[in-house]
Here is the input.
Amino acid sequence: MSLQCWKCGASLAGMLLPLSRRETCPSCHADLHACKMCRHFDAHRAGQCREMAAERVADKVRANDCGWFVPRPEAYKGGGAAMAQASRGALDALFSSQSGANQAGGSETAKPAPPTLLDDLFKK
Here is the structure.
């Protein structure tokens, strides 16, 4: 079974199973014996757990003592810091190219620059 961290997606191939309660991800240091890493975790259920006999755990991302814990390989859903950084880079590229086009323009057919001050948007 090829495990990945539920938070960052780092490979947990070198980890010994069963995961101990205090085990953390070597990359992001997230707790691994947590509900988010368990095969019984279901965000769409009322208690967020498919195991009816399990005790309720309030914090799904922190380590717990649940005896029903079984790590699931597909716990990582993507996103996180890598996705945020890629999105930020795309936004920066988009807006830097627009501001460069507005500054370099000079022809009369160029689009007007967007308002820079909030007052310009709501003038009477």
